[in-house]
Amino acid sequence: MIPNDLIDLLENTWTSTSKLGTQLTEAQWKSPSELPGWTVQDTLSHLVGGERMMQRLPATTHVAAAAAHVKNPMGINNENDVDERRSSSGAQVLAEWNEITALRLQTLRNADEAYFSVETMTPTGPGTVADFLHIRILDCWLHEQEMRRSSGILGNESGDCAKHTLSRLIRTIPIVVGKRAATPEGATVAFNITGAMHYSFACTITNGRGAVTEGAATDALSTITLESATFFQLATGRVNADESKSKWSIKGDSDIGYRVVSQLNMMI
To answer: Are residues 44 and 147 in the same domain?
Structure first.
């Protein structure tokens, strides 16, 4: 099956990112992002590199100098793409972004079912091209939001891309609540997300495993309330529990709640 719904979501965040880019001054392009060592422009350069890879275009031959914020082989590859474009202006990187996303949309809109069924390695392990698109929506939308927060131009905070990203991140909640936070058997930790998105869910530990249910929980051991932007920042390691403590609250068992918030980072 051709995943037109996924292609639509990619087009949504790609177009929104392009519109954001037209509003940025060169100073805003060069301003620090939430990612250590990266500017707003660097974040878009990273997305350009990712789409070039998805399009099977040649990888850069540029080798970036060692940097303290680069922690692993994936980070090295990312930094090579980013550093190659640091001498460019924001407008030049935006032009490259518009070119590669137009090419990607043309490829995706004209591909047959076999294209999306090709086996490939994804950030979460072996899968298909369609599986990779699920993750790519999350990646592109999260980076769009980082660019927006860093430049002070908010937008596209809710809607289908945000819902898709939230649903993907919630898949890891059982590991956070159960294994990392060591929530006791039979207990429930509830989440109340507010702000641009409104969504409630809970995770209950049964036979040592966590299971997520949608909706508010009335018998939760601990209930964590936070805005959607803060949830996404915590879930992607852009801030930690202590840095964001004014942006979340806990009702009930504060120790369990804090352990969950402090272990919420689900990204590499």
So the answer is: yes
CA max distance for the chain? 56
Helix (H, G, I), strand (E, B) or coil at 71: coil
Which position has the token pair 């890879």?
53
Sign of the C-alpha dihedral, residues 192, 193, 199, 205?
negative
On the question of pLDDT at 45 being above 70, the answer is yes
Q: In this structure, what token pair is assigned to residue 218?
A: 């009335």
pLDDT tens track for 182-194 = 999 999 999 999 9
Indicate whether 23 and 136 sit together in one domain. yes
Instruction: Provide the H-helix boundaries in 118-159.
Output: 129-151
| Residue 128 CB burial class (10 angstroms; 0-12, 13-18, ≥19) | middle
pTM, to two decimals: 0.96
Which residue do the tokens 């890891």 mark? 172
Q: Is the pLDDT of residue 145 over 70?
A: yes
Is 80 exceeded by the pLDDT of residue 268? no
**CATH code for position 182:** 3.30.1050.10
